[in-house]
Amino acid sequence: MTIVNILFYLFSAVLIGSAIGVITARNPVHAALWLVFSFFNSAVLWMLLEAEFLAIVLVLVYVGAVMVLFLFVVMMLDVNLVQMRQGFTKYAPIGLVVAAIVIAEIGSVVWVKKLGYDSFGDVAPLPAEYSNTKALGQLLYTDYIYPFELAAVILLVAIVAAIILTMRKRAGLKPQDIAAQVAVRAKDRVRIVKMEAEGKES
User: Fold this and answer.
1) Would the pTM of this model clear 0.70, i.e. be above it?
2) pLDDT digits (tens, 9 = 90+) for 6-62
3) What is the DSSP string of 156-200?
4) Whether residue 7 is found in the same domain as residue 70
């Protein structure tokens, strides 16, 4: 067994453990931090596959931007943890059924169909002048341009939805009234009063 295989199994085991921590953490902030740890381990696996660009993007975009957004949303939503835990057991059977279906699907792909897994051998190293960034860009902006644009629109809708959720009506909250701001007129807000000039005191 080579050092690459050892590192793969090591980081894969840590990744599975951190993924379990995401779904078992009682605090949503702790779950988000476990997810950050999962992203870092996934980036290492991409590095082992010589996909350096995907590894860097995973760290910079997801850990550096998306997870920060998640943390802000979780903190601003003011989630009631006690109320969330009360309904956990009610949805546990459905969650177990969905988990069993996902495990069965993965098993059917890996062990039943195999998808040519037996033919996989040692991956040949890529040449020094090869750029996976260029290859990924050519594929992304040619064959998969429409799914790429669709994903961008979905992310935009998610960002707008997150902002709207934080602006819901709460006690002590002063939301913006865009219509009132646009309809405002200067004479309704400013009053000019004429006053006589005062003479200088002797």
Assistant:
1) no
2) 888 999 999 999 999 988 887 777 888 888 899 899 999 988 888 888 888 888 888
3) HHHHHHHHHHHTS--TT-----HHHHHT--HHHH------PPPPP
4) yes
Domain count, the chain: 3
Do 1 and 57 reside in the same domain of the chain? yes
Spell out a b/e string for 99-135, using b for 16 or more CB atoms within 10 Å of the CB, else e: eeeeeeeeeeeeeeeeeeeeeeeeeeeeeeeeeeeee
Full domain range(s) for residue 75 = 1-79
**Does residue 151 sit within a domain?**
yes
Identify whether 198 is part of a domain. no
Whole-number Å distance between alpha carbons of 102 and 82? 29
Between the two ends of the chain, the Cα-to-Cα distance in Å is 101
In the three-class reduction of DSSP (H, G, I as helix; E, B as strand; rest coil), residue 128 is classed as coil
Residue 199 in any domain: the answer is no
The b/e string for 47-68 (b: 16+ C-beta within 10 A; e otherwise) is: beeebeebbeebbeebbeeebe
